[in-house]
Amino acid sequence: MPLNIYNTYYMLGAVEEIPLEHTFFRNRYFPTNKESDIFGTARVLADYKERSQKIAPFVLPRIGAIPGTRDGFSVYELEPANIAVSMPLTLDQLQNRGFGESLLSTRTPEERARILLMQDLTELSNRISRAEELLAVKTILDNGAVMRHQSDNPNIYRDITAKFYDGVNNPALYTPANTWSHSTKSGETWTKGSWFTDMCNMIKQLTSKGRKVREFVVSPDVGDFLMDDGWLCEMLDNRRAEIGRLDPARLGEDAYELCTINFNGRVLPIIVYEGSYEDNAGNDTKYLPDETVIAIAPDVGRGLYGAVSQVEKDDKFHTYAGMRVPQHIATQRPPALETQLTARPLFVPKVANPWCVAKNVLP
Question: What does pTM read for this prediction?
Answer without folding.
Answer: 0.86
